[in-house]
Amino acid sequence: MTKDDLIAYAQALPKAELHLHIEGSLEPEMLFKLAQRNKVDIPFKSVEEIRAAYEFSNLQDFLDIYYQGMNVLRTEEDFFDLTMAYLNRARADNVRHAEIFFDPQGHTERGVSFDTAISGIVTALSMAKAQFGMTAKLIMCFLRHLPEEDAFKTLEQAENWLDRIEGVGLDSSEVGHPPSKFERVFKAARERGLKTVAHAGEEGPPDYVHEALDLLAVDRLDHGNRSLEDDALTARLAKEEMTLTVCPLSNLKLCVVDAMTAHPLKRMLDLDLRATVNSDDPSYFGGYVSDNFKAVIEALPLTREDVKTLAKNSFLGSFLSEGEKRAQLAAIETV
Ligand SMILES: Nc1ncnc2[nH]cnc12
Ligand SMILES: [Zn+2]
User: Fold this and answer.
1) Which atom of ligand 1 is nearest to the CA of 24?
2) Is 214 annotated to bind ligand?
3) Domain Adenosine deaminase, which positions (predicted)?
4) Which helix H or strand E contains 258, and what residues bound it?
5) Which of 253, 260, 261, 306 has the greatest count of CB atoms below 10 A from its CB?
């Protein structure tokens, strides 16, 4: 199979996306439009100027512009439009199921209520299900650069929405904010029946991955790249069939890898890790799920079987029911 054939195969496969920050799908065109609609001042005169600002040398560089960008999101309608645009775009890549992060504290700390944000998002999720059968689950993330006490306040604000929230996650500036800082609030989330996931080993050391497993009892690990520096940890992740939500274009844009040819995805698969391919913040990192598949297929010696495994892993690692997983795995076999 040629690389072009493999890219077409990856595009055609039914897939789940498990690592997508909805605020990171805010395209420059929508950012510009919402700034005008809501009369919000932004330091850019054009869509081209916004795009030109998307050059990062590490995670914090990106986060600074990501939090600035989300400042144009003010109303329920803004969150609806944002979410609907992502779901339509993901659908074009044959994403059949998405587990979507949102950052409530990125909104509440600038005066936009938790209810405003989540109402717009869940309305779009329901509409996508009704209109084109795409399923989605919502994961609310705690910002790890803020105190645990603030995360507890966010969990309280979520109380009336627990039937629409699948789990909690942990994102933002990793180094200096280890998972141990959030052990109590993750325990409280689990007691409410929520699933748990956490970004770990993106920039942070393997110890942070150990903490995410041992102290937060995560059901899934976001990124996890630096786990590979620790052989015992790698063996444990394989044995426990822990899903890793890997984000190749994000890793390249944030300088987690020097070049796509140096990306560890193929190594992860060869080590029997349950790796998946995801877009993280597609509007900032240059592409959606199929663009991420294309980038790794072009740069790495991935086989047809590897690509199929990645698609299967995306459903196996999802929070769908066993029956729903079986149906999606069967659909993969027909491509
Ligand atoms: N890749 C990432 N890592 C940490 N926090 C984030 N928030 C949005 N994208 C993120
Ligand atoms: Zn992320």
Assistant:
1) 8
2) no
3) 14-333
4) none
5) 253
**How far apart, in whole angstroms, are the C-alpha atoms of residue 164 and residue 229?**
37
Say whether 19 counts as a known binding-site residue. Answer: yes
Q: Which ligand is nearest to the CA of 23?
A: 1
Query: Number of folded domains in the chain?
Result: 1
* Closest protein CA for atom 6 of ligand 1: 172
Gap between the Cα atoms of 278 and 299, Å rounded: 16
What pLDDT, in 10s, does the model give residues 152-173? Answer: 999 999 999 999 999 999 999 9
Rg (CA), the chain: 19
C-alpha span between 269 and 49 (Å, rounded):
39
* Per-residue pLDDT tens over the stretch 89-100: 999 999 999 999
Name the residue with the closest Cα to ligand 1, atom 5.
172
pLDDT at 22: 99
Our answer on whether the CB atom of 256 is closer than 6 Å to any ligand 1 atom is: no
Spatial CA neighbour of 23 closest among 64, 70, 62, 77: 70
- Band the pLDDT of 330: cuts 50, 70, 90: very high
What's the CATH code of the domain at 113? 3.20.20.140
Determine whether the annotation assigns residue 107 to a binding site.
Answer: no
Q: Is 283 in the pocket of ligand 1 (CB under 6 A)?
A: no
Q: Tokens at residue 147, please?
A: 């105190």
**Which residues span the domain enclosing 260?**
3-333
pTM surpassing 0.95?
A: yes
250 lines ligand 1 (CB under 6 A): yes
d(CA 331, CA 140): 29
Ligand 1 lined by 21 (C-beta under 6 Å): yes
